[in-house]
Specification:
Oligomer: single chain
Binding site for L-tyrosine: 60, 197, 201
Helix content: 40-55%
Organism: Thalassospira povalilytica
Main location: cytoplasm
Radius of gyration: 24 Å
Structural class: alpha/beta
CATH class of the largest domain: Alpha Beta
Subunit structure: Homodimer.
Binding site for ATP: 260
CATH superfamily of the largest domain: HUPs
CATH topology of the largest domain: Rossmann fold
Number of domains: 3
Strand order of the largest sheet: 2-3-8-7-4-5-6
Shape: globular
Number of helices: 19
CATH architecture of the largest domain: 3-Layer(aba) Sandwich
Length: 439
Amino acid sequence: MTISQPVDQPASPQNASEVTQNGFASEALLALHARGFIHQCTSFAGLDRVLAGEEAVPVYIGFDATADSLHVGHLLPIMTLRWLQRHGHKPIVLVGGGTTRIGDPSFRSEARPILTDEQIAANINGIRKVFGRFLRFGDGPSDAVLVNNADWLDQLGYVDLLRDIGRHFSVNRMLSFDSVKSRLERQESLSFLEFNYMILQAFDFLELSRRFGCRAQMGGGDQWANIINGVDLVRRVDGNEVFGMTAPLLTTSSGVKMGKTAAGAVWLNADRLSAFDYWQFWRNCEDGDVGRFLRLFTDLPLLDIEQLEQLSGAAINEAKIVLADEATRLAHGEFELEAVKSAANGVFGANGDLNGLPTLEFTAHALKDGIGILALIVMAGFAKTNSEARRLVEGGAVRIDDKQITDPEHHILNYAFDDWALLQLSVGKKRHAAIKRVG
C-alpha cells in the first residue's frame, strides 16, 4: 500500500509521521494513529486535548449524495467515525442534500452532473442505510446523528451569505488551492457554481458547531482545503477553536486508487453489488495490502493482525479470507456472511451451495429455446460485449458447473437443470454466478 501526498496544504500542516504514538493522551487518537487513519491535522495537540476529556466530543464527516449507494472508497471515513464512537465520541454523519446540488470542483476534469431534487432525495435514502451497519444511532451522548445540510443551506439568503460569510474568504487564497489551480492550469472550465462549494462546506462546519457543538471535521486528504476553510471560518465568526484532520489518500500496492476495479466501483449496498462479490473483492486483494486493509477495514485487534501479517506464500490466503469475512460481516451482517461462506465453499470445492452468489433468473418458458452462453456472460457482468465473451469462451475460461464450455454458440436449455434449480457459471477462478430456473 502506498500513500499519495495530500493537496491544498496550509502553511504548516502537522503530519502524523511527525507524532509518535506515545505523544497522544486520548485513546481515540492512539487507536486511529496505530491503525493508519491519520495523515494531517490542524493541531494534533489541540485535538488530542479535546478528545482526552471526559465528555463525548461531536465530530463530523460529510458525504454528498451523488449516487444511491456509497462505495468502498467511503469506508475509510466511515471507519474513522466508528473508532471515534468506540472510544466514547459522537459521530455526526452529514449528508449533502444541499452541496450535492453544487458539486465539489475537486480534481475532476469537468463539472459534476447536476441532479434533480428528486434524484438527490432518492440517493440519500439509498446511502443512509449504510451508516446503521457501522455506527450506533440514538439519543445518547455518544450516539451518532445523521443530518442533512439542505436543512440550512436551502434557507440561506444570497445577500446575507455574501455579507456575513463571503467577506471572510480570500479569492487569492481560494485560487491557490490545488483543486482549483489544477483546473485553471489545464484551461478547463470552472463554473462559479463549483467555486462556491468550499464556502458552503465551510458554512456547514460553522452550522454544526452552533447546533451540535461540533469540534472537528475529518475527511480524505483531497478535502484538506475545504476542511481548513471551515476551521478558519468558525474561528473568525464565532471565535471557537475547532480542528480538522485528514486520512491518507490510499492506493493499492500496484498503484490503483482504492475501491476502483475494472468492473467499476465496489458498492456497499447489496442491490448494487452482491455480498458475494463484495467478499470476493477483499478475498482477491493484493498480498501487500492485507495487513493495511485489516487495520483499516476490520475491528480485529492489532495483535491478531500482526500474527496474520506473518503469513507468507500460499498461507497469505488465510489472512485474505479473514479480511473478506470481517469486512463483509461489517457491511452486510452475519446472516449474509454465512450465505456467502456457503457459496464460497461451493465455488472452491467444499460441500456448499450457490445461494449466496449473484443470480441470473430465467423462467422455464425462456429456457425452452435456450439462453446463449455469450449473453449469459454479459448479463453476469463478466464481459461488456459479446465479442469479449466469445474470446473468454474460445480461450477455455468458461465453465457451467464442472463442464468447460468452448462453443460460443452453446445455449442453456431446460434439460440442463435436470432435477436442480441452479447451475453455476464460472469465468476463470474468481468470477462466479448462479443461473436459476424459476416458474
